[in-house]
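Quick question, first post here. What does this chain look like in 3D?
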Amino acid sequence: MTASAPRDVTGVGRWVPRLILIVAVLHLIFGVVVDGSLWRGMVSDGVWNSATGDKPRMSAEWFMVSGIAFFGLGLLTRKAVLVTGRIPVETGWILLALGIPITVLEPVGGAPALIGIGVLALIASRHDIDAPPAGHASARSEAAATSSSAAASD
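> Answer (accepted):
Ran it through. Tokens below.
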């Protein structure tokens, strides 16, 4: 199977990458809308070294950087699902490792969504264990058996 060939992924496995990408986009939009004045100030200060020592600007910077990181995680998870038909278990653990401490430090915010998506990712990764990976011998033999039984019934 080539890296670009789509897999028939259903259920939670299909939604986990989408949910991560939604969180990433919301993070970036929220960062621009809420911290817009801070970003305009950084641009007017010439961008270079414009956040150093300014806690609100540094917070805005890290908020946007984390949105970009979520976008990367979502894209990589999506690619893994398309190629292998599985959610990598590491996706769930990464989201939990981020979501739990942030929720403890700041319970009112978006971090509980990371915990929820992380749990879904772990469930999906466990659910997908029964399915053979793409190109696996048992996957090929199941496909061959299905096609030969369909041909015999004609």
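Helices lie at 12-34, 36-44, 55-84, 89-105, 111-127, 137-153.
The chain is about 75% helix and 0% strand.
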